[in-house]
Design brief:
Length: 308
């Protein structure tokens, strides 16, 4: 009996200790995808709190002439980076987003991007979007307004170089050519489709040199992309009723989704959606559902994206 009483007493004390920790707000905090990405940030030691904290360093933006912007666009090849099916398998093909005031999930698949031969700042695009169970084709246009080269000293860019002997210039091992691209877009859904409309708004893109003469999307600088790589912020207008609804989507929505819906997701690489939001179209996020395909086989490997 004494042994049993001791065991019960120990169990009670352990439970009380755990309950005390939780009541004092000391429970384990879920790590978000954005916080996991912050491991690349340059941290400084806080001598008062005795902990690693992030010191924000202002991003330095530069200006370019239109001629230099034109030349840089040729090097960046936005038509390849915006495209859903890219040569770089690190990018998931789907643009995920929130639609309407209830922030229901919406998805975009961009199947074709063509640079205008007469104007390199204009791109013709086409693809499909899915809202709830409705899949609607669209065509549209993206117009680039400006390209702003910048230096972000909040990150160590070294790991993004493919070769150690790259000739890309560095400044204190924290800078490699990065560029913030701003523009506008319009996507016109098929007018014959039920519930179709037009998305019109702004597009922001961050790119970084890969050290070999090419460029890739960049997900690490706090600016208008909200670290989403490619971000589209728009208003949708119904073709029939002229009703309007807000829409925001990105190549990596999880970089800022928690800023829109509190505790929307957690997890460093294996993303988990908060159960209270799964009814908003996120219950099948992990399914390999190639809803955009018509004979074309495109493999959706979200797991590989987060693990690479």
């Amino acid at each position: 009996m004494k042994l049993l009483s001791s065991i019960l007493l120990l169990a009670y004390v352990s439970f009380a200790f755990c309950s005390c920790n939780f009541s004092q707000g000391k429970q384990m905090k879920f790590v978000t995808h954005k916080e996991a990405a912050d491991t690349q940030r340059i941290a400084v030691r806080d001598t008062v709190q005795q902990m690693d904290t992030v010191k924000e360093i202002p991003v330095e933006y530069g200006m370019m002439s239109k001629e230099n912007e034109r030349n840089l666009l040729k090097e960046v090849h936005l038509e390849k980076l915006i495209l859903s099916k890219t040569e770089d398998e690190d990018y998931p093909p789907i643009y995920n987003g929130f639609f309407g005031n209830d922030h229901y999930r919406i998805e975009f698949y961009i199947s074709d991007v063509q640079s205008d031969t007469a104007n390199p700042f204009v791109f013709q695009v086409k693809g499909k979007d899915r809202f709830k169970k409705n899949i609607t084709p669209f065509t549209g246009i993206i117009k680039i307004d400006s390209l702003l080269p910048y230096k972000d000293f909040n990150y160590d860019y070294a790991e993004y170089l493919e070769e150690e002997d790259s000739t890309v210039p560095f400044e204190g091992d924290t800078f490699i050519a990065t560029c913030h691209i701003k523009g506008t877009f319009e996507l016109h859904e098929d007018s014959n489709a039920k519930g179709s409309g037009v998305y019109a708004g702004k597009i922001f893109i961050d790119v970084v040199s890969d050290g070999e003469g090419g460029y890739r999307l960049w997900f690490n600088t706090e600016n208008e992309t909200r670290r989403g790589g490619v971000l589209m912020d728009a208003m949708w207008t119904s073709n029939t009723s002229k009703e309007q609804k807000p829409m925001i989507c990105a190549r990596d929505l999880f970089m800022f989704a928690n800023d829109i819906l509190e505790d929307f997701s957690y997890g460093e690489r294996e993303i988990e959606i908060n159960k209270k939001y799964r009814s908003l179209g996120w219950d099948n996020y992990w399914e390999n559902d190639e809803w955009w395909g018509e004979g074309e086989k495109v493999t959706l490997m979200i797991w590989d994206f987060w693990m690479n």
